[in-house]
Every structure is written in structure tokens, then in C-alpha cells.
Amino acid sequence: MKKIIFIYFLTLFASYSQAAEESTEQDSAPTTDTQAPASETSTPQAITRTLTNTKKAIANDIGMLLSSSLTEVIQLNALDEDFDIYFLGSEDKEPIGSILFFPDERNHSNWPVTLQPLRTKLTSYNWQTAVITLPNTQLEAMPKRTDYSAQEAENTAGNETEAAENNQTSSDDTTNTETQALTQNNEEQSEATSTMAETVIARAQATVIKLKEQSDVIIIIGIGQGATWATAYAATLEEADKENSKLILINPLQSQDLSSPTLNETIGNLKIDVIDIYTPQETSSYYADQALARKRAANRADIEQYLQIKAPSFSWTKAGNQWLYRKVRGILKNQVEQKLAEKEALESAPTPPEKINQAPGAINN
Q1: 25 vs 11, 13, 21, CA distance in Å?
Q2: Is the distance from CB of 321 to CB of 117 less than 8 angstroms?
Q3: pTM for the complete prediction?
């Protein structure tokens, strides 16, 4: 009997202890009435995405590297935007003229193949050189991602509860808000930013003004896709500047920028001499066809001289730098320097005495 009573009291004590613990946990836990819904405390915010200006970042890095060399990194301004040119003066005080390089937009403005050897070595022959830095290429926008949420909601509308439908509607509203904010931000940026064509032409004009402080002779060289921009700038030259200018295209290619003009059509509008250095590919007829199209466009234009030079395929590698340098050097010597020397000699020659018609036997006092 005593054992039964003892077990009864022990069981009663255990039940009381468990009830006390549960009461303590309930008192310490926050009630659901005081918790606000997540949708009321945190409102989804539209996120704007901004792409980094990779061209400008690369130009800054190269400018720092060139600061310890003979090349001067000169900052100019065009369309209220600062940009750098890589300028290298001639060895003599008075240069023959200036060479303005338009780099391939797929590479930077001190590319070690083709560009860098030309801009540095040609200064040994009394030419000053300058390379402009290009802005970011504006390519065609990628297709928008398909939103499957609306289609999925339509297919499962009969099986979803009213609460799930409300959540789906709220999610769609949030997505639409983000999309509208992003679209509006992109439109504002596109309106405020000039096209690449406008920017490049403005930068070239600002650079030429700087170069003409030393000489009026300007040789324009476009490399790769930079040939599109070099040709576009050459088409804007005034009549007085065309006499002292010449355009050299090195492995010319069409730019992929949305605002870029068509290379062949622009060549058809030129009025200055053009030298076209290209390589026909044995495995593909594309480059040969493009070269023929450029030549036909030049024939329809009022270009006094359009010369095409076939280059070996290794010319566009580091091993071909020397070949290309000697070829461009020969063009400058024969096509530009020699004509300038003849013009200078003609202008400095003494004027012959004026002939006077006299009657026979007259004495000229």
C-alpha cells in the first residue's frame, strides 16, 4: 500500500513539472499576433544594373604603364567627356607631319601587334604619332528572357488556392516593377550618352586640332575595325584639309557597333588618296570579296589614287611587325615625303624674269 501511494505522488510530481516547463516556454515565446507579415515590413525594391566601362578602365591602366616611357598620355575633351591620346613626338623639333591611329576596337590602343611598332618606330623618321582611345562598342542587345510565370499560373490555375494566386499576382507585380524601372534607367542612359560614331568623330577632331599645332600634314591610319572609324573621319574632312591628308587602311574590317557607318559606302564618299593593305585568305573568299567591293566603291568615287597592297598572312602576327613597318614606311617615303619635298623645292625656286616682247633691234635697258 505504501508503495502504491509513493508511485502515485511521484507520477503527480512529474506531471506538474512538465506542465510548468511548457507554461514557461509559452510565456517566453513571442505571440503570433505581434508578428507583422513579411510583405508589410519589407517592400521589394527595383534593382538597376550598370555595366562597367571596360575600355576606360583599360585605358587608365595603359596610361599608368606608359607614364614612365617616352610616350605622353595627353587628356583631351570631346562632347563634355575626357579621353586620353597616346602621343609620341618626333626626334626633330619640326616634324614632317602627324600620324593619327584608329586602333582595332577589339584591342586596346597600345596593342603590341601591328599598332605599337608603327606608332613608336615611325617617329625616327621625323613623324609624330598619336593614338586615340575608343569608347565601348555598343552591340545589339541580347533577347529578353522569357517569363514563364504567367504561363505556368494559367496552366495550374484550377489546382491552386486563392492564396497562391494572390502570391503569384504579387510576384508578377514586383517583376513588372523591376522591369519597368530597369527599362526606364536604360532609356535615360541611352538618351544621355552619345553614340560611338559621334564620340569617335568628336575625339578625332579634338586630336587633330592638337596635332596641327606642329604641322598641317595628317596621315590617318585605321587598323582592323578601326578602319571603319578612320574612313568615317576622313569623309568629314574639309576641302582644304584633303590636300594634306592621306588614308591608310590596314587589314580593314567592318565595325560591329550599332552606330557605325558601312565601310564600303563610306569609301565611296571619300575624296582623298587611300592605300588599302589587306590579306586574301586561301581558305575563304570573304576577304577577297570584301577587298573587291572596296575597290569598286573607290572606282565610283572621286579618289585620285586608290592603291591595294596584298600582304602575307603572317603580317598580322608579331613576327610580321617588321614587314608591315617597312611597308608603311615605304608608303610614307614615296607617297608623302617625296611629294612634300618636290612641293617645297618648287615653292623655294627663284622666280624666272618676266619676258617682255620688244620690237626687233630694240635695246633693253
Answers
A1: 22, 19, 6
A2: yes
A3: 0.71
